[in-house]
Each structure stands twice: as structure tokens, then as C-alpha cells.
Design goal:
two-stranded antiparallel ribbon, disordered N terminus, 15-stranded antiparallel beta sheet, single chain, mainly beta
Length: about 350
């Protein structure tokens, strides 16, 4: 432990020990079940001896969680059904049920999928230790998804997905200059939106393109994630994103892999105004282009060589805090060059 500018730095260690047993039972060709148990234990210790980082007089803290789960899949002529249930029991926060339901159906070239899922996340050790209210609660997440896909040809498929995500009692980190840093539950947050993906594959390679959109309007109630006047956006997160991944074969051994990521407008903290109120601004849409070149089977089919250039345009991705933490965006690495070589040996029997 040491003191740097009147801030204590602690010597801490944290470990998580996890174990699980899962069974898979095939009752018949149409009914399958997976079931099991899982346990984990979190343990943190303060070795500094300089202060009580945990409760007064305590140098360590531990928590224990046990869970049982089961999921059954039914295959019928009408549709395929999946039903699952998980029960968690945390020694600090009690129990929580997490159901999961799914329905899938295929008609020739058309397929659909409908999913509903709830999940439970207990606060971690640091969430509990730095809780302002000393009564922090678990997060509970609810997800609805609907997928629709159509095979346009033997080489191309188009898939669209709608989603609605709600996080109840989200555990949020924030900093207050008067009381310091800590974690607290807020009412809720979440997003809804869609993504569309097209995949084309042929003997010469493949091209995958996907576009995604989200809105947080009427979903987010965490002030630290919001931008004044922009209730559909979350801080640091682009509402629109377009990605392309591709592979082009040239001959039997050489291939080129171009890709790009196009981010829509993002919002970031920019500073303080004359009244010491936070100001926010937009980061313009940006394109990140990458190339990777592969040559396989050199020197008796034993060596593969790859050369890649990331962020070809040297745009330097700006890393924006997704919450108001008093920090301006941090610059990324910029253009990067990577060389990779793999060697395959052939052992004599």
C-alpha cells in the first residue's frame, strides 16, 4: 500500500472459484434435456495492512452462489420448442429465477426464431464494497428477440433480427467529487433495435455485410448514460453501424481479406461551460478500413504467412467513456501492421 497525491493504493487480490456438473439426456429423437448444477465462490483479500478496505476490522470478504438449471428441447412437426429454467441462490442477495423460452420454425428457404430470456447478475465484490447506499441489488435483464431469415439462393442468405433489451436495477459506476467513486442501482436502462445481415459464399471466397441500429428512447433512465437533447442515444455508442468482412481467393494458396467498420455519429463529454455545467458534442461518423493478406503452404506445405494492416486510413479510433466519468475521449493506436507466420511439422511414425 502506498499514498500517491493523498490517494491510497491498496494491495488487493481477488479470486473466483467455479465448478459445474452438466448432464445431457436424449429421451428419444425428438426430446432432449440438459440439466446441471453450478457453484462459484468469490474471495478478496487486502494485504496492505494500512487501512480497513472492507468492513472495520476485516481484511477479506467472500460470497457464494449456487445454481440449478435445466433446459428441454422438443422437436415437433409444427415447430421446435426450447424451455429452460435456472435458479440462483446468492448468500448475500437471496434467490432469483431466470426462465428461457425459444421457438424456431423452418419452411423450405424461410426460417424464423422467437426468443425470450431473463438473466440475473449478482453484484461483484467491488460493487458491494464501493456501494454508496450499502444496499446494492442484483441486476435483472430481460431480452426479446425475433429473427427472420431467407435463403435467396444456394450461395446467399439474408437474415434480419429485432431485439428489445431491458436491464432492471442496473449497477452503475459513477464519480462524485464530494463523496468519491462508487456503485449504485438505477431504475432501468436498455435498448431496442434491429440488425440485418447478408452472407454470400462461393468458390472464390465470401462477402458478409451487416447493419445494426439501436435506440434507447423510453428505455434508458440512467442520467450518466444520457446526452442532453438526444434521448435516443447512449453516451459513446453509435446508433448506426455498418460492417463488411470478406475473403477473396487468388489461386490455391493466396487470399486477400478486406474488411471495414463504419460507425455512425457518437456523442462524448467535451468539458464544462462558464457555469460549470457539462457540455457534450458529436464525434463525426468514421470509417476503419483493414486488409489482411494470407499465403499458405510454403516450403513443402509447412509454412503459412500473413500480413495485415489495421486502420489503413489512420483514423485513430476514439475511445469514449460510455458514462459521464469526467474524462474526454482517449485516442486509439492508429494504423497498425501485423506479420504472422505458422509452421507445421510432420512427424515420422
Amino acid at each position: 500500500s502506498e499514498n500517491y497525491n493523498n490517494v491510497d493504493i491498496y494491495e488487493l487480490s481477488a479470486t473466483r472459484t467455479r465448478g459445474n456438473v452438466t448432464s445431457n439426456i436424449q429421451f428419444n429423437e425428438n426430446i432432449n434435456m440438459q440439466a446441471g448444477v453450478e457453484v462459484y465462490s468469490d474471495l478478496a483479500k487486502d494485504f496492505s495492512g494500512a487501512t480497513d478496505y472492507f468492513a472495520p476490522g476485516e481484511s477479506e470478504v467472500s460470497y457464494f452462489n449456487s445454481a440449478v438449471f435445466a433446459q428441454t428441447r422438443f422437436v415437433t412437426s409444427f415447430a421446435n420448442f426450447t424451455a429452460g429454467l435456472r435458479y440462483d441462490e446468492h448468500n448475500e442477495f437471496g434467490g432469483a429465477l431466470s426462465p428461457r423460452l425459444g421457438i424456431t420454425k423452418t419452411w423450405d428457404k424461410l426460417h424464423t426464431k422467437l426468443l425470450y430470456n431473463r438473466s440475473f447478475r449478482a453484484p461483484a465484490i467491488e460493487n458491494i464494497n464501493l456501494s454508496f447506499s450499502e444496499n446494492i441489488s442484483p441486476e435483472r435483464t430481460q431480452v426479446f428477440e425475433f429473427e427472420l431469415g431467407y435463403q435467396l439462393s444456394s450461395k446467399m442468405i439474408l437474415v434480419a433480427n429485432l431485439f428489445d433489451i431491458t436491464i432492471e436495477d442496473p449497477i452503475v459506476y459513477f464519480f462524485d467529487e464530494n463523496i468519491g467513486e462508487g456503485y449504485e442501482n438505477f431504475e432501468k436502462t436498455g435498448t431496442r433495435g434491429f440488425d440485418i445481415e447478408s452472407k454470400y459464399k462461393d468458390s472464390w471466397g465470401y462477402i458478409n455485410v451487416n447493419y445494426s441500429y439501436y435506440t434507447s428512447k423510453d428505455k434508458n433512465e440512467v442520467p450518466l448514460y444520457t446526452i442532453p437533447g438526444q434521448d435516443a442515444s447512449l453516451l459513446g455508442m453509435a446508433n448506426h453501424r455498418l460492417n463488411l468482412y470478406s475473403n477473396f481467393k487468388i489461386g490455391d494458396n493466396f487470399s486477400i481479406n478486406p474488411s471495414f467498420n463504419l460507425y455512425g455519429k457518437r456523442y462524448t463529454l467535451t468539458g464544462l461551460d462558464a457555469n460549470d455545467e457539462y457540455t457534450f458534442g458529436a464525434v463525426d461518423p468514421d470509417l476503419f478500413l483493414n486488409f489482411f493478406f494470407n499465403y499458405r503452404n510454403l516450403w513443402k506445405d509447412r509454412i503459412d504467412i500473413g500480413v495485415g494492416v489495421y486502420d489503413v486510413l489512420d483514423r485513430e479510433m476514439k475511445f469514449i467513456q460510455p458514462y459521464n466519468g469526467d474524462n474526454l475521449p482517449l485516442p486509439g493506436m492508429g494504423r497498425e501492421l501485423m506479420v504472422r507466420m505458422s509452421f507445421k511439422t510432420k512427424w515420422k511414425e
